[in-house]
From TrEMBL:
This is Branched-chain amino acid ABC transporter permease. InterPro entries: ABC_transp_permease, LivM-like. It comes from Streptomyces thermospinosisporus. The chain crosses the membrane at residues 12-29, 35-54, 61-77, 89-110, 117-137, 179-198, 229-253, 265-293. The lineage of its organism: Bacteria, Bacillati, Actinomycetota, Actinomycetes, Kitasatosporales. Pfam families: BPD_transp_2 (PF02653). The keyword Membrane applies. Residues 350-398 are annotated as: Disordered. It is found in: Cell membrane. Residues 363-391 have a biased composition (Low complexity).
Amino acid sequence: MSERLLGRLRGRPARIVLLAVLLCLPPFYLDAFWLRIGLFSMAAAIGAVGLSLLSGTAGQLSLGHAFFLAIGAYGYSCLASDPGPGLPPVLAACCAVLLAGAAGGLFSPVAGRVKGMYLGIATLALVFLGHHVLLTWDSVTGGFNGRSVPPLTLGGFTFAASDPELVVLGVPFGAEERLWYLGLALFAFTWFTAGGLLRGRPGRALAALRDSETAAAVMGVDVARHRSAAFVVSSMYAGLAGVLLALAFRRVVPDYFSLALSIDYLAMIVIGGLGSVAGATAGAVFVTALPLLMTRYADQLPLVTAPGSAEGSVGPTEAARYLYGAAIVLVLLYAPDGLHGLARRARVRLGRHRPPSADRKPAASASATSAASSSSSSSSSSPSQPAAAAARSKEHTP
């Protein structure tokens, strides 16, 4: 048992290193379209992990995730712009994330005292309020047309296409190639911090709070404080996702941060599996990549027309929403734990049908040897028992 445990511990870092190497290869082999899908999926995964902590682990319904994404995106764009504070881009990104957390902290008293559908309606007001502010505050947000996003610069390296052109192993690195590795770093940071949070005492407290508030309070969990903290952490993850989205889009507009975006994030965590980091990632990739792929291959898909076609036809975006709406219904009916639960059950079934490993063979042979020795001993003792009985009968015969 100890050898197998050590083998698993040695194998997990190897799998992580192999996965990291594989994720570093796409910029050398894929074109800009697939890299943009990956960037949008990584940004969506960061935001979905934050919402999964709030709704899946803490059991708090939120429809205002798009509001905190907008704070992160517009916060970075305003703070890093020259007609403005003109902060260094890295500092502007950190301040934008903190600004989103501060907005979540201002709303946290409501989140600490309201739950369920009532909290969902309260957060819904944030989306409409934020959208109105983005449209009317022209001097800061740029109004309906939005505003451009300054590129991120780190140590003299710019995450955008710039002169002189960067060439790595014969591959020209433009904005998508450079932002790919930034997105990987931010996603890895999100994955490990959220996983550590779920495995630690805060995660156990939030899970107890989700299952039963009364039982959690009896165990010493401060219900209002943990609810508020979950809302702040979720808002900061959303702000980080907004910063990465702004860098990927290169321009932010108010219409993107609407109620539909909040619904998309709820679909991500439901399809992927509530309370799971891996499930939120899988759901984010599915919901984000599906409309982009359907837009590219619209002329090859039945019942789907290219964008800008005649009225009454189904566009790729609408068709994608229909598909993942149907996916939500199927998940709720047949797999309430989402894609993550399906993958876990598949691993269990594969483990059951796996042939016996090499480390089990010596044990089996040892048990067979012991069984053979016991059977031989019993067979050798069986003739002596009737002989002893016959001798005793002769002694008692007159």
